[in-house]
Design goal:
Blueprint: H1 2-10, E1 15-23, E2 39-44, E3 55-60, H2 68-76, E4 84-88, H3 91-97, E5 100-103, H4 108-111, H5 130-143, E6 147-152, H6 154-166, E7 172-177, H7 196-217, E8 220-226, H8 233-242, E9 246-247, H9 250-256, H10 260-276, E10 282-287, H11 290-293, H12 295-301, H13 306-314, H14 340-352, H15 356-361, E11 363-369, H16 371-375, H17 380-398, E12 404-409, E13 416-421, E14 426-429, E15 434-437, H18 447-459, H19 482-485
Parallel strand pairs: 3-4, 3-6, 6-7, 7-12, 8-10, 8-11, 9-10
Antiparallel strand pairs: 1-2, 4-5, 12-13, 14-15
This protein binds 1,6-di-O-phosphono-beta-D-fructofuranose.
């Protein structure tokens, strides 16, 4: 698989054109007709040397994800002589300010295979007003930029679509799918974002190390919150790798209609179950996004601590002060500020007080694994994928296409890059009264969710062994068969 990605990356530059065999129902009237594409864009072999010189702008947007620097290298390694790449510094905010630098092939030695987004920087500024669109025009025009590549997640690519509309005829806008959360998907043409594999491998390694320590010492339960808001793809992928003794996903809580105490009772049951087999240690994992679906935590993160404190007081725990959670421009809460792992741990501890043996023997420690996964150097999969995404975004720029996001179909032995109309990903959001790219949550019909449900109860008594299990070379989430993984 990784070799096929590299092969596709190393192949000659080509152009993309509408592929009438794959069409979409797109909602009319969201953006102008010219960028309201109703088909996929597929690559065909065509010379590109005769095309006019091109200046491409690029901006990182939202949270960092491993592979961003390789997206830049993917473009630079194929840049035709005379074409230019201009990077905007500090995310969409930097784009509005006109804060930029020229990037050239000499930068590749510095940044190839490097994690984080620090070469250009990023932020979460939303570009959506007419004044902002005008501001972007006034920055791009003097620089001669005729194609702008936005490297981002669902919110950033919603920006990209409306910016493509506003800049039509002056500058094309192309999205590159990024986010460790893995919630920007459009199957089968866009099953995965870059950064997801590295972050999940990173967290899986850390959780596995806790598990190894726990088996060796038989002393502690580790209560681990993992980054990933709204969608629980990260926790699901990590669960498949490390087989935690207990795990709950936000989508599962929603489906089961569980309250906070239901979650606590489930964790308590697993701990007591293992204790009955003389195992006073283990691993619990869950995503930070549970705060969105558990009413007491949701109220708390919105500034109302009363329902949570009522529950805490009822089990004899001191009330807690509000953490400093706020929303970004797109309405996303910074859940990392919320110490839900400590809250959960205290409630489980309180629950265990009723059991003599558990009260004496169970010791717990909270952990949060998040930001380090975004700065990790990309895995070979993410690196190859990001290089290909960068190259494809450049080819779409040469093809004079706007309002599309780069995708890649992994359903065949040789993954093929495609251009997916952004409009096909858009839905009307009643709460926000606007069209936005919908976050793709873990679906109960997904194969990786079904296998998780089948295996989960076996993991209660699982312990990591020697030889250690190997972490996945390619994302489990892609559900590739053995031939495809090679
Ligand atoms: P993106 O969706 O922008 O890729 O960011 C994802 C993420 O890493 C989430 O998993 C996490 O909740 C959030 O960013 C943390 O960033 P911040 O500290 O800005 O809230």
């Amino acid at each position: 698989m990784i070799l096929s990605l590299v092969k596709a990356f190393e192949s000659k530059l080509g152009l993309f054109q509408p592929n009438k065999q794959v069409s979409f129902d797109v909602i009319q009237g969201v953006v102008r007709q010219e960028i309201s594409h109703a088909t996929l864009f597929s690559k065909y072999d065509s010379a590109v040397d005769h095309l006019p010189k091109l200046t491409v702008g690029i901006v990182f947007s939202g949270g960092p994800a491993p592979g961003g620097h390789d997206v830049l290298c993917g473009i630079l390694s194929h840049l035709r002589s005379g074409d230019q790449l201009i990077g905007f510094c500090g995310g969409p905010g930097g784009l509005l300010r006109g804060d930029y630098k020229l990037i050239d092939t000499s930068d590749m030695d510095l940044i190839e295979g490097l994690g984080g987004f620090d070469f250009l920087g990023t932020d979460r500024t939303k570009i959506s007003t007419n004044d902002q669109f005008e501001q972007v025009k006034s920055v791009l025009e003097p620089l001669g930029i005729s194609s702008l590549i936005i490297v981002g997640g669902d919110d950033s690519n919603t920006n990209a679509l409306f910016l493509a509309d506003a800049l039509h005829g002056r500058c094309n806008v192309i999205g590159v799918p990024k986010t460790i959360d893995g919630d920007l998907q459009y199957l089968p043409h866009l099953p995965i974002t870059f950064g997801f594999h590295t972050a999940t491998q990173h967290y899986a390694r850390l959780v596995q190390q806790l598990a190894i320590d726990a088996v060796g010492t038989t002393k502690y339960w580790h209560i681990v919150k993992l980054m990933g808001r709204s969608a629980s793809h990260v926790t699901l992928e990590v669960a498949h790798q490390v087989m935690p003794n207990a795990c709950i996903l936000a989508e599962e809580i929603n489906q089961l209609g569980w309250s906070l105490m239901d979650v606590i009772d489930y964790f308590t049951r697993v701990i007591l179950d293992r204790l009955s087999k003389n195992k006073p240690y283990g691993i619990i994992i869950f995503p930070e996004g549970i705060a969105d679906v558990i009413p007491e935590l949701d109220h708390y993160s919105r500034g109302n601590a009363a329902p949570l404190n009522k529950l805490l007081e009822a089990v004899g725990i001191e009330p807690i002060q509000l953490d400093d959670v706020y929303e970004d421009d797109h309405g996303n809460k910074n859940l990392s500020m919320l110490n839900s792992e400590k809250i959960i741990m205290s409630l489980v501890e309180a629950n265990l007080q009723k059991h003599d043996q558990a009260r004496r023997e169970i010791k717990m420690m909270p952990h949060f694994f998040g930001y380090t996964g975004r700065a990790e150097d990309p895995t070979p999969f993410d690196s190859a994928y990001a290089l290909l995404l960068g190259k494809t975004a450049y080819e779409l720029s040469l093809s004079n296409v706007s309002g599309v996001i780069v995708g890649c179909d992994f359903s065949t032995i040789d993954p093929s890059p495609v251009g997916v109309p952004l409009q096909a990903l858009v839905n009307y959001d009643e709460d926000r009264s606007r069209y936005v790219i919908k976050k793709h949550l873990v679906s109960d019909a997904a194969i990786d969710y079904k296998t998780y449900q089948l295996k989960k109860s076996d993991w209660v008594h699982h312990d990591v062994n020697i030889p250690r299990p190997e972490l996945f070379d390619v994302p489990h989430h892609l559900n590739l068969d053995e031939d495809q993984k090679e």
